Amino acid sequence: MPATIRDVARASGVHISTVSRTFSAPHLVNPETRVRVLACAEELGYRPNRAARALITGRTHNIGLIIADIANPFFPPLIKAAEGQARHRDYHVFVADTNEDPAAEEELVHALAKQVDGVLLCSPRMSNALIEQVSREVPVVVINRQVTGLPCVMMDVGQGARAAIEHLLGLGHRQLALLGGPRGSWTNQQMRRAAGAAARSGGAELTVLGPNPPTETGGSALATQVRDSGVTAVLAYNDLMAIGLIEGLDHLGIRVPQDVSVVGVDDIALSRLTRPKLTTVATPTAAAGRTAVDMLLQHDSELRPRGGGRAAAVGDRRTTAQVMLQTELVIRDSTGPLPGRSRPGSVPDGPGPHRLADPGSPTVTTGGVVAS
Amino acid sequence: MPATIRDVARASGVHISTVSRTFSAPHLVNPETRVRVLACAEELGYRPNRAARALITGRTHNIGLIIADIANPFFPPLIKAAEGQARHRDYHVFVADTNEDPAAEEELVHALAKQVDGVLLCSPRMSNALIEQVSREVPVVVINRQVTGLPCVMMDVGQGARAAIEHLLGLGHRQLALLGGPRGSWTNQQMRRAAGAAARSGGAELTVLGPNPPTETGGSALATQVRDSGVTAVLAYNDLMAIGLIEGLDHLGIRVPQDVSVVGVDDIALSRLTRPKLTTVATPTAAAGRTAVDMLLQHDSELRPRGGGRAAAVGDRRTTAQVMLQTELVIRDSTGPLPGRSRPGSVPDGPGPHRLADPGSPTVTTGGVVAS
DNA sequence: TTCTTCACTGCAAACCTTTGCAGCAACCGG
DNA sequence: CCGGTTGCTGCAAAGGTTTGCAGTGAAGAA
């Protein structure tokens, strides 16, 4: 039913190669011929078959985006930013969700491999070794993880966690807890290390609870543990867990921030909607999406050798940069002074969130260019 | 670099067709040969090129899912359900986001057309005529919209809106407002019609405000209008708008539900997290995702004719069913009795949500099978 | 022994497109 | 009038796979 290039050629009385050129190199064909061909194509509803084109050009003009959990509101801004950036470069993004399952992750990248020019691996749960292996099959940019030899875009959650801990120390807290995220998460490691160091150097004690599923339920399930541990302030792996925890504490009759302070990570839209509004470490998710697409497509314009070897596909790994994006602590209403010293009952509604305008572009390249 | 079928054939000393059969019809090849071929394939890291396979079989084993806005928490459960169902049938789902833009929508389905076996059009914003047109290019199942002659899965928001209005009437409200959704939304029409009828037959007045963007901001922007209109209860197009409205009213010093009652639609996870918890119309989004995939793939097993015509691709339209899924009103804390009669200050925390277990499968086929 | 059947494998066409090369006509400068 | 350039078009190979058909050898039946 769908018209092929041959149908158009027949209808317009030219060779198929002329039709092909009409679409992929219009300047090579006579204007008169061109309009005739275009008219026929229009009439027949012809659209070039991208799969067939990909077979020979080696370019699909698609990129894959693999993420752990679409339902986590952390991802949509990243997805949208990546889509927008890709669209500018005439690429499409296919999103796939792995349900936090490393096996599904691997299967997906294999399924995607031949249908896309590269994949963005976002917050991968699989091992570094496996990532390196799949990166030999298809160009990969890793988001939210550092793996040597591969292009990565990371968010400096270590710095964020440190800022959060220091904020809590400044409020007088000395008994702190960290709600760990999922096993296999690089972010989790970074936070743990940085938070631990910050707490130690502030003379405070940090209890680590976890690993846990990085969801609201994961957070609320920890409420009793948090209560029993006697801590007065908590840093959660992400906002969802923080919100879940607040919810769970509420059920136990523990108030936030009067009795316990809670800090999240991500600054998802939701964190502005809950009561109390969440103090959190804002991560530049949109910038991460844009940057990752740029890195994957940086060699876009390079010509592809015909015949000889396979395509020097997009994202040729001759220079692999590693980019670290900055995070920022946004102070809202879920943190307050240590219970003992608080002016009871009143939450300081004072200065409100002291946050700079949306980071967007202040991307800091720490890794620079690394030869591989 | 990536190994092709030819490399494997050479390595294992057989013809490429044997290699091909080893993967797509193992019973046709000698067990000994098979293990040898598999071993070589394993060693070379060979994976069949799905694009090339699709070129000849006419089946990509991919399905496209086009949605208006990934950031809307309404969609993720649907996406996940569709992915799960597809995986069972050995299909992959590619998700794409249109940013609520009808033009992007059309472009996307064209881009997807040749790379998938069918597309799920979820809450489309384009015209019915356009949908019918693209459905001639690629099999389509429409979600959240009724278009005659095409398979559709809908949620009965009309019934939901009616139930919501009746709930509000029961609480004594007579001045009602409906916060409209985006232009081009079928759901919007259904709600408007049903809510209008229910209000009329209850002797109440219904003001329609809109159209509006179906987001939290869209809701909060309407706060002053709602105040000035003097209504005492509001039904919003979706939960996001409802939550935004509550937020906006809060800034104006108007309390929910004491001063104004608010009902949302969708029952997104978030609606259980805000304070007050949202009264809302629960929609069976997961079931919708599953059902849509099933409908698209129902002719999966049919053999494809070689040569002759093009593939009788998936979702052959010989019988096109239209399925209507039921919705359910979930009463929580954002609705209360008419201000005049209320016991001031206390929100009835009483019976809590009186909701049946997650609907899941109670899917009701209203349309039955329709010849096309 | 001869014929049939069977299990397996090879051959080659087909899917739809891109692209290097060659052909061809018209035009230009000399 | 000739050699060269320019602008356009056709030819055919290539890309990786599937699959109908035909061929092979061996086993079984008559």
Automatic annotation (TrEMBL), chains A, B:
Residue numbers spanned by region Disordered: 330-372
InterPro entries: HTH_LacI (IPR000843), LacI/GalR-like_sensor (IPR046335), Lambda_DNA-bd_dom_sf (IPR010982), Peripla_BP_I (IPR028082)
GO molecular function: DNA binding
UniProt-listed Pfam families: LacI, Peripla_BP_3
Superkingdom, taxonomy of origin: Bacteria
PROSITE patterns linked: HTH_LACI_2
Protein name (Swiss-Prot/TrEMBL): LacI family DNA-binding transcriptional regulator
Domain HTH lacI-type: 3-57
Keyword line: DNA-binding, Transcription, Transcription regulation
Cross-referenced Gene3D superfamilies: 3.40.50.2300, lambda repressor-like DNA-binding domains (1.10.260.40)
Translocase found in the keyword field: no
Native organism: Micromonospora antibiotica
